Amino acid sequence: MQRVVKPKTQRGKRALAQREPKLVEEVKTAMFIRGGNTSEMITRILKELNMLRKPHAVMFQKKNMLRPFEDQTQLEFFSNKNDASLFLFGSHSKKRPHNLVMGRLFNHLILDMIELGVDNFKSMYEFQNKKCTMGTKPCLIFTGEMFDTELEYKRLKSLFIDFFRGPVVKNVRLAGLEHILSFSAVNGQIHIRSYRGLLKKSGTKIPRVELEEIGPSLDLTMRRTHLASQDLFKRALKIPKALKPKKKKNISHDVFGTQHGRVHMESQDLGQLQTRKMKALKRKGKQENEEKEKEESPKKARTDDDDASNEDSS
Are 154 and 196 in contact (CB under 8 A)? Predict the structure, then answer.
């Protein structure tokens, strides 16, 4: 039987309340972990990708002897301790040089892991230009058929979106699209490029957009994978009932997203419809004609009686 330790201070209570499950979760935190043996290239990659993820990132300063594909208990412990659901592990060995392992966790248990080898790397400091502001939400662009056809590349695309998308917002202004991340899958390689969007004058209301590469730049190849089963993946994507939109009756959408609605109304008597009161447009109804006939009929009867009385007197 597991012993449950209750918090004794207000700070401990607030910390536990913050870790409780919510209907709308906050931005995921990513852990950047150095292995027991790392190359200079891997260390620079971890530091620069950590800068892209700030402030929702935790950089481990000490080396950790981990083997993610053989034993995940240490990673799950780090996830529970730091309340993080994403990680990037870097290592270097003769068998797997310049190695990166990117993964995510569900309920502090390993969900997906993909091992990537670094073929080429160009640091952001090699690009002598202005960088984007820290914490800017990037625009993610994916090119390549493999991201839509092969299962492993589909999961890798989903993992990249989870890792780099930043906070979820409803609206983004044009000037806010400053940072662009491009992911291309060509000939078995994944190319990652980072750009800064420049808005130039075009003579119209819509500015002319130019892209300037700011780094970092990576060329990766996929190595080992550890993917979750379809049932576990569906559980991780499950949406709470409170957040599901209620279905509205008699409303449908076409292919172009146009909303169509059906309104049910009672039968209307158009004879009682209020129209603009004008003499030229005034119509005589049946009731008015009947009332006039009733008024004229007693007058005719009186004239007939008068004629009969005059004849008798004569």
Answer: no
- Alpha-carbon distance values, 294 to 297, 299, 300, 304 (Å): 5, 9, 11, 16
Whole-angstrom distance, CA of residue 6 vs CA of residue 62: 31
In terms of pTM, does the model score above 0.90? no
For residue 154, the number of C-alpha atoms closer than 13 Å in the C-beta half-sphere is: 7
One-letter amino acid for residue 203 of the chain = G
Bridge pairing between strands 208-213 and 189-200 = antiparallel
The token pair that represents 116 in the structure block = 């990537």
DSSP collapsed to 3 states, the chain: CCCCCCCCCHHHHHHHHHHCCCCCCCCCCEEEEECCCCCHHHHHHHHHHHHHHCCCEEEEEEECCCCCCCCCHHHHHHHHHHCCCEEEEEECCCCCCCEEEEEEEECCEEEEEEEEEEEEEECHHHCCCCCCCCCCCCEEEEECCHHHHCHHHHHHHHHHHHHHCCCCCCCCCHHHCCEEEEEEEECCEEEEEEEEEEEECCCCCCCEEEEEECCCEEEEEEEEEECCCHHHHHHHCCCCHHHCCCCCCCEEECCCCCEEECCCCCCCCHHHCCCCCCCCCCCCCHHHHHHHHHHHHHHHHHHHHHHHHHHHHC
| pLDDT tier for residue 174 given thresholds of 50, 70 and 90 | confident
User: Which of 195, 182, 162, 140 lies closest to 28 in space, CA to CA?
Assistant: 162
Higher pLDDT, 269 or 158: 158
Cα 204 from Cα 178, distance rounded (Å): 20
Cα–Cα dist 306/242, whole Å: 88
Q: Could you tell me the two tokens for 302?
A: 């009186």
Tokens 């730049």 belong to residue: 217
